[in-house]
Design goal:
The chain has helices at 2-18, 21-32, 39-65, 70-92, 94-108, 163-168, 226-229, and strands at 115-116, 126-130, 138-143, 146-152, 159-161, 180-184, 187-201, 204-214, 222-224, 234-238, 241-245. By secondary structure, the chain is of the alpha+beta class. It has two domains: 2-92; 115-245, Acid Proteases (Cathepsin D, subunit A, domain 1). The strands form two sheets. Strands 3, 4, 5, 6, 7, 8 and 9 form a seven-stranded mixed sheet that branches. A hairpin with a 2-residue loop joins strand 7 and strand 8. Helix 1 (2-18) packs antiparallel against helix 3. The protein starts with a helix and ends with a strand. The model has no long low-confidence stretch (mean pLDDT 76).
Length: 246
C-alpha cells in the first residue's frame, strides 16, 4: 500500500509540475519548437505522461496488493467506481440539488425566517421567506438593530409601525403628530411620520427608509410597505415563497 500511495503522489506531482509556472513554458517550447502547441495540446501531453506514470507505478502496486484476492479487487473497483459516479453526478446536478436544499430549508424553517437563495447576478443580495399558515407573508425585519415581525403589504405606500413596535425602536411616542390619513381595513385612520435609519431582511439592508407610526389600536401587525419594497431590485411571489432581490 505504501508503494501505491507513493505512486499516487508521483502522478499528482507530475501533473502539477507540468501545468504550473515557468516549467510549463519551458516544456512547451521544448516539445513544440518554434511553431508552438496549443495549451489544450499540452494538457493532453500532461494527461498522457500521468497515465504512463499510473501504468508504470500504480498498476503493478495494485496487482501486488491484491495478489490472490481477485474477489476483493473486483469489489473495491466496483465500490470506488460507484463512489466516483455519485460524485460526478452530484457535481453535474449541483444547481438542481441546491434548489432542493433551499426548498427543504424553507419547509423546515418557521414562516418569516430569512432563507438564503441563489444569486442571478454577481453581487446580488437575495432573501426568501415562506408563507404563513393564514396565507400571508410575514418577514422578520431588523429595524435599527431591533427585530420586528412585519406583514408584507404591497398596498401600503410605506412602512407602517404599530405603537408597540415603534416604542421598541425607541420612538418618542409623546412627540408624534398624527396628521397623515391612512386607509385601513377598519376605515380611515391617522399616522405620524417617522424615519428609519436602517431596515434589513437577511443580508438586504436599506438605509433612511420612510415610515409611519399608526395611532394606538389601529394595527395588529406592523406593515412592510412600498417605501421598502419599491427600493428593491425586485420582489417575486411564487407559490409558498416570496423572494426579495437587491
Amino acid at each position: 500500500m505504501m508503494r501505491l500511495l507513493l505512486g499516487l503522489i508521483v502522478v499528482g506531482g507530475v501533473a502539477a509540475y507540468l501545468l504550473s509556472g515557468p516549467e510549463w513554458a519551458l516544456l512547451s517550447n521544448w516539445v513544440a519548437g518554434p511553431d508552438g502547441l496549443a495549451r489544450g495540446d499540452m494538457h493532453e501531453l500532461a494527461a498522457l505522461l500521468a497515465a504512463l506514470a499510473l501504468l508504470v507505478i500504480v498498476v503493478p502496486s495494485l496487482f501486488g496488493a491484491y495478489r490472490g484476492r481477485v474477489g476483493g479487487a473486483i469489489r473495491d473497483v466496483v465500490s470506488w467506481s460507484a463512489i466516483g459516479l455519485i460524485l460526478v453526478a452530484g457535481y453535474s446536478y449541483r444547481e438542481e440539488l441546491g434548489q432542493i436544499a433551499f426548498r427543504i430549508a424553507g419547509e423546515l424553517s418557521p414562516p418569516g425566517t430569512s432563507l438564503g437563495v441563489e444569486q442571478r447576478q454577481t453581487g446580488e443580495r437575495a432573501v426568501r421567506i415562506r408563507k404563513r399558515g393564514d396565507g400571508h407573508f410575514v418577514a422578520r425585519v431588523s429595524i435599527d438593530g431591533a427585530a420586528v415581525p412585519m406583514l408584507v403589504d404591497t398596498g401600503a405606500s410605506t412602512i407602517v409601525l404599530r405603537q408597540q413596535d415603534a416604542k421598541l425602536l425607541g420612538v418618542d411616542l409623546k412627540r408624534l403628530k398624527y396628521s397623515v390619513p391612512v386607509q385601513t381595513a377598519n376605515g380611515l385612520a391617522y399616522a405620524a411620520h417617522a424615519k428609519l435609519s436602517e431596515v434589513a431582511i437577511g443580508n438586504i439592508v436599506l438605509r433612511n427608509v420612510d415610515a409611519l407610526v399608526a395611532q394606538p389600536g389601529v394595527l395588529k401587525e406592523s406593515l412592510l410597505g412600498m417605501s421598502f419594497l419599491s427600493r428593491l431590485r425586485s420582489y417575486e411571489f411564487a407559490g409558498e415563497f416570496l423572494t426579495f432581490r437587491n
